[in-house]
Amino acid sequence: MSKLVAIFYTVLILFQSLNISFEDLSKFSALMEHASYHQETYGDSFFDFLSEHYGEASVQHESDHSEHQDLPFKHSDHNCCHINTSFTLQNTEFIDSYEAFIEIPLNFHYKESFSLFEKPSVFQPPQFA
Predict the structure, then answer these.
(1) Per-residue DSSP letters for 35-85?
(2) What top-level branch of life does the organism fall under (predicted)?
(3) By CB atoms within 10 Å of each CB, which of 16, 31, 36, 93 scores lowest?
(4) Per-residue pLDDT tens for 58-78?
(5) Is 113 helix (H, G, I), strand (E, B) or coil?
């Protein structure tokens, strides 16, 4: 099961990196129909068709047919967005107002936490006889 999930994610990442969407897969039939039209009308092979529509000759062949928008991989949604942010650094000066500790005050007082007012026998844990 984990291998199947790994293969699914691998194929998903491959499709996303090649910018293949489900819309392109649904337009694949239009690609085959248009390729067969070119074969019947102009006698082009499939590779000639691909070079005319996706290669160097695609610019001049773009205006010949109106079906070119229905072909897959013809979307132009490659958006690049740059956000310019400016950072201003302000000068911050830290003033050391630290005074040296010279004299140790003698105000330490320790009081033992023992009281004679408590009854120690009442608060003892139970003892075995």
Answers:
(1) HHHHHHHH---HHHHHHHHHSTTHHHHTTT-SGGGGSTT------------
(2) Bacteria
(3) 93
(4) 767 666 666 677 787 776 655
(5) coil
